[in-house]
Amino acid sequence: MDLNNQIMTISIEDLKIPLGYRFAPKDSTVITLYLIRKILNNRPLPTTAIKDIVFYNFDPDQLPIDEVSPYCRHNEAYFFTRVVPGRTTMSGGQWKVSGPDVPVMVVGQVVGFKTCFVYYSAEDQENSTKWTMFEYRVNPALIPADSKNEILKSKIDTFVICKVRYRDDKNKLDWINPTFQTLSIEDLKLPLGFRFVPTHTELIRHYLNKKIWDEPLPSTAIMEYIDFHDIDPDQLPVSDNFLEYSRDKEGYGFTQVVPGRTTKSGGHWKASGPEVPVMGGYAVIGFKTDFVYYSAREEKITNWTMCQYRVNPDHTAISASNVTLKRKIDTLVICKVKYKDDAENSSSESDSPEKNENIKDWNNHTFETISTEDLELLPGYHFRLKDPEVIRDYLINKILNRPLPTNTIKEIVFYDIDPELLPFGDYGESPEDAYFFTQVVEGRTTRTGGHWKASSPDVSIMHGDQVIGFKSFFVFYSSGEEKNSNWTMYEYRVNPGLFPAESTNETFKSKIDTSVICNVHYKEDERFSPSQSVGSVQDEETMDNETDTSSRSQSDQSEISKSDD
Predict the structure, then answer these.
(1) Structural domains of the chain in order of their starting residue, each with its CATH number
(2) Which of 94, 125, 209, 555 has the most CB atoms at less than 10 Å from its CB?
């Protein structure tokens, strides 16, 4: 029996919702659990939170938002309705498109689309109001053509869900100018494994924008005004910990763009790829470009690479007379510089004396496990382990039944599950980067017949001069598919030679041979349409891309989620 058929519609009015919780479904939930069920009329809806009205008959200030406002975010409501030509209200006002259609994905499949609109009143068709709306519609291709009668086809073509919101200036979440008390990176105390590894969006939104607007930064992890284009990269201020705030041989700094990107020695940074948009929600808030460094002495490519981030000037509303601010927008950038070691066959800790002085005690590390559920991180800080930390501080301690640094890595039967059904998100993990303890199984085949296939040789993981473990790279192939998916994984295992043969009984030997940590990734296809909107309406509406590419089971997607609004 399909358990989903047993769901009874819950009256939203009868729910006892704790303070801080709101009806804020993901895009995929809106399509799969509400709109499709409404169209097919074959299963109950999860809740009565979405009301059925003739939406386009009303001006937005006449909509019955008050009836559902206690359950949604401030000045926001969802409605079932039918589309009408022109999307014109009875008073003559009109909802006008303000962005392209955005596909809504579930497990790599397009289940629907959403489009952003803004409202223009009948009295003023030149200037938009503060009312915005997302219109959700189902993908007609989901339903086989031979199963569509005329009534069903009409419902698919015209039934939509409208998510309407009033952008109240005094309540609007201002992502450009939220205030922080800047924390010194030296004073920041984080559990092992949490470090400065910001996303592209975080760099633009929380650091570069704030620098341009002279707002306090979340932390001092990005160094002040390093003249990247004046000095060779091997002369960067390592002594000032520039390359130590995030990961080995990598650092971030603010700088000014200069023509040619040529250093005083004659070396130059050369673009190695096209400029790529950085998205905030569905708006382009900035761009990043990759560079490689060419030495003047050798006139050939070096191991130094750089990502340069700049804001999208079209996304920032400024007065034409504000020349100083305009110049900062045009020239101020963040550069992420990295040295890529030739030793690709090994992964090791830094060789600095400070890190190597206690190598002999690496296998005696003891921790008091820190719970990370309530850990509040500054923008840019995430759980990202260095390879030696995975082996030394987590996997070996797990095998020896010793306390772990944090409870961030969960233990699951990893190889039973297709990757899109993995339990992401409990401790802030995302499909882009999550870790799991598990036991290796023969063939690395899931229950559905999919399998993880090795795609490169083992890499040795070093601690000082000692091999403490290995990592292998895998890609996932779905059952019956000859083409690899977007899911990739590093599997970490300990070096059995670390443990004396006489100290290993059969049980312990089995744990050493089969216990691993899997670090799984989902890589989105980087697609960008030149017609993509660069307006701010959609970005203000959604601070992060709501489209559910995390590919959880549809039945696991909660309709009542915690909101900060």
Answers:
(1) 3-171+543-562 (2.170.150.80), 185-339 (2.170.150.80), 346-522 (2.170.150.80)
(2) 209
